Amino acid sequence: MSIAVVGVNHRTAPLEVRERFAHAPREVPASLQRVLSAGAGGGVLLSTCNRTEFYLAEPSDSTAETVWAILGERLGAGRNASEYGYFQRDRAAVRHLYRVSAGLDSMILGESQIQGQVREAWEASRPQAGPVLHRLFQSALLVGARVRSETALGSGAASAPSAAVALADKIFSRLAGRSALVLGAGDMAELAAGCLVSEGVRVTLVANRSYERARAIADQLGARALTLDEAWEHFATADIVLSSTAAPHAVVTWERVAPAIGRRGGRPLCILDLAVPRDVEPAVGQLENVFLYDIDDLQAVAAHAAAERHQEVPAAERIVSDEVERFWAWYGGLAVVPVLKEFRGRLDDVRAAELERALKRLPHLSPEDRAQVEQFSHALLNKFLHPPTIALKQAAQAGRGYGLLESLKKLFGLERPDGS
Amino acid sequence: MVLVPHLLALGLYGLATALALAPFAGLRPAPRALTLGAPLSGATAHVVGVAQVTPVGVAPVLSILALFLVLLQIVSERVFRASAVALFTGPLATGLVGLALLIGLGPGAAPSGGGNAWFILHVTLSVLGLALLALAFITAALYLLQFRELKSKRFGQVFRLFPPLERLDRLNHVALVAGFPALTLGVLLALGYAVRYAGGMHVDPAQIVWGSFTWVVLGSAVWMRVVRHWAGRRAAFASIAGFVAVVLVYLALKLAEPGTQRFL
Prior knowledge:
- The structure holds 2 protein chains of 2 kinds.
- Chain A is α/β, with parallel strands linked by helices.
- Chain A folds into 3 domains: about 5-155, Glutamyl-tRNA reductase, N-terminal domain (Beta Polymerase, domain 2); about 160-305, 3-Layer(aba) Sandwich (Rossmann fold), CATH 3.40.50.720; about 335-410, no CATH class.
- Chain A is built from 15 helices and 10 strands.
- Chain A has a 6-stranded parallel beta sheet. In chain A, strands 2-3-1-4 form a 4-stranded antiparallel beta sheet, with helices on both faces.
- In chain A, helix 11 (about 255-260) links the parallel strand 8 (about 240-245) and strand 9 (about 270-275).
- In chain A, helix 13 packs parallel to helix 15.
- Chain A is elongated and about 120 Å long.
- The N and C termini of chain A lie close together (about 10 Å).
- By secondary structure, chain B is mainly α.
- Chain B has 2 domains: about 1-110; about 115-265, no CATH class.
- Chain B has helices spanning about 5-20, 30-50, 60-80, 85-105, 115-150, 155-160, 165-200, 205-225, 230-255.
- Chain B is globular, with a radius of gyration of 19 Å.
- The chains are: A alpha/beta, B mainly alpha.
């Protein structure tokens, strides 16, 4: 019995490789089926933008090779996928999944999105997961939840887009229902707008130098498209302005927006300037009730949160270690029961055979005496079996049963012909 | 029996203050159940203590003011999730209870003019109005601190632990709008009490001056917020100026008339 993880993540493979390995949900069953056919009792495929990992129960020696073959096909040109990945077994594999679920293995330490992705992977692979991985993933989700509730690993905003949300959140008591104006069509603005939308902010206007590009993004966000020159008036009404144009100089100047901001009646305005070079003139930030932040500020917020999260790593790792031992105790117990049963059965067969032979040599014994001798043989066997049985059960409960079990199998020839 | 619940409240308010200050000292924030449970338990003991004193003289009034501050702190945290209010209300309530104990609390005599219930209601509503004015001051101070943090782009403990600006502004608005009718009723009850029960009872001019001044300050603050639609930083400055003026006038009157026993 064993558990393994085979895969790649953001530490071992560059983005262009991870992109190729990523599996769409519809591709998961077929890949898993191939891996299970190569020899495994169960499998779950976790595929996100930062990792593609096959979790396997009772894999055979050739299963990892099959995984690398599947991933290698996606790389093409005869490239070897295993160069980018890792293979871990047993406790290390369990620890790996628990760390992933807790956000300890994420690119942004402590991010919570991974927990949902672990759940989705488990649910998508459920028919092929098997009971051991079913239990493993269930416990991984609990470990993730425990780490988040008992440590501050997930606190603060540790990425620039989430820092944008955190800053807006410190100005407005509720982000839901706030209106946002997006200037420019940069990727960062789109990403930050997505974060704000997920908090309930309504992107009502998208302005760009090119009206067509503005319209394309506005259509995606359910907003109205404007040209940049039409946007300045809307500084009077928007709650949040996200700016990320490709202009080589500041486009949001004091002269352009001060009159509109003057009509806000003291309502706060949060301007998030995500462009490099900056889109918004610093003088705009001096206006009353205007809170202007540029990309450096967002990164400062994110860095601050990341530093605080790093302080929580030892506490989170302790929780992971505790839970790995707890799982391993359960898993060890699972393996002990059938082996003990077989061990006892094998010795009982020996006892019965020897008893039969002895009784044949003692025909003069009365039925009562024969029964006494048989009783004696049972008692003797039980006395012999008691200490190893207890020791194995205790070792299994302590998570150390696996090694003892292997020794027992070897010493008493308990390996079945089918290898189980 | 007055002393024990007050001492208990004092200890629990001290604990609540320590819990509120802990994150600023780099310690892990206490669970919400504890940050709410400590002041709530203190307030429960405090109610038992306050119920046994007659609100005549400085010490009982300080004790009632402390109780209202803690109750407002709990409401601020429960309803507005503004736990940072405890940074001010915690030490203030602890100090006020401590001061009341030092001055001397005890079951007092009934007011000379009789009409005890009327008098108690007058004191209770007036002190509630004052506590709400204090809450408006606290939220205004928190607002200005958070405003400065956000404007100067310092993303430290104040940024992390203080509530959003809008929430503080809203709490300030609610405190002023709720405080004004409470104080107005308190003042009206004082007038009614004087006419109906006190008869020829002597009332210090200082009491009348301070009570009227506080009412005018609170009324002006409400007028600015509700009629003139002041909000944000301007309203915060107005709240702070009003509360400071009320405290300074009280101190000036107290110094001008030392030994006045009935003046609060």
